[in-house]
From TrEMBL:
Assembly mode: UreD, UreF and UreG form a complex that acts as a GTP-hydrolysis-dependent molecular chaperone, activating the urease apoprotein by helping to assemble the nickel containing metallocenter of UreC. The UreE protein probably delivers the nickel.
Keywords: Chaperone, Cytoplasm, Nickel insertion
PANTHER family for this protein: UREASE ACCESSORY PROTEIN D
InterPro entries (alphabetical): UreD
Protein name: Urease accessory protein UreD
Organism of derivation: Salegentibacter holothuriorum
Family, similarity comment: Belongs to the UreD family.
Coiled-coil ranges (or none): none
CC terms in the record's Gene Ontology section: cytoplasm
Length: 269
């Protein structure tokens, strides 16, 4: 079982990595270039090429009060032939006036893959969450389009212990033709991008997201306002890198906005 945990802290108004623990194949590395930036940027590195049969990853993230964290991945997550399945569990706690931003590289389930992922995210009424997920249909160029057995990713977001968002992405290619109308059709990648922010209106996010994704060709997208502080973007496309870079542009602008707001608060105090 591989696992890692991350806990942030504050040192002279700058977010630091206060505590971390990891086992093979993981390593936690700070990649922030400007050490005075309030936003801490961490990369999760792995010595493994992907998930294998019986792999069970356990992840714990604690973003402490007044801290800002951007958590990055190193590369695409490949899920190999797993006849008995592979699993990942992620528990995230974003405290008061804290910011958490996470856009992992696309997941690519290979032929015969069985994968189960569960993400539980706890927020307060003054926590900010930027959360992305990109899934490939498989190794399309290898003739493995929807050749995996099962892919399930369940994400639950709680605000003050109240469930405000639940996304149960469940794909079983044997039970449903994902090339049919109303499914993936001719597309091979899908992306979800969730924003929960009590300090900005969803319309601000919607305007930014629409401006960025409209630059892309050969995609379909929709943006939904879920509440007074929550919205979600969904995209279908044919290139994982295209979707990843489009969402990365949005994420970078939101990260910079969060850093600037924190610097402003620091200067006012």
């Amino acid at each position: 079982m591989g696992q890692y945990s991350v806990q942030t802290g504050l040192y002279k108004d700058v977010t630091i990595l206060k505590d971390t623990f990891f086992t093979p194949p993981f390593n936690v590395v700070e990649v922030r270039e400007n050490k005075k930036d309030p936003l801490l940027e961490l990369m999760i590195m792995s010595s493994s090429p992907g998930l294998f049969n019986h792999d069970d990853y356990q992840i714990t993230i604690n973003v402490k009060k007044h801290t800002l964290l951007n958590l990055q991945t190193q590369s695409y997550q490949r899920i190999y032939n797993t006849p008995d399945g592979a699993r990942q569990t992620m528990n995230i706690d974003v405290e008061q006036d804290a910011y958490f931003s996470h856009l992992p590289h696309p997941s690519v389930p290979h032929k015969g893959a069985i994968y189960d992922c569960e993400n539980t995210i706890k927020l307060t009424d003054k926590s900010v969450l930027i959360w992305g997920e990109i899934l490939a249909c498989g190794r399309k160029l290898m003739g493995e389009s929807f050749a995996f057995k099962k892919y399930r990713s369940l994400t639950k977001v709680f605000q003050n212990d109240k469930l405000i968002y639940k996304d149960n992405l469940y794909l079983n290619p044997k039970a449903l033709d994902f090339k049919a109308m109303g499914q993936y059709e001719d597309f091979s990648y899908q992306a979800n991008f969730l924003c929960v922010d009590p300090f900005h209106t969803p319309q601000e996010y919607i305007d930014l997201m629409q401006k960025e994704v409209e630059k892309e060709e050969d995609i379909l997208f929709g943006i939904t306002k879920l509440s007074a502080e929550t919205c979600v973007l969904r995209i279908l496309g044919d290139s994982g890198e295209q979707l990843f870079q489009a969402l990365k542009r949005i994420q970078k602008q939101l990260d910079k906005q969060a850093s600037n707001l924190r610097l402003q608060k620091i200067s006012e105090n």
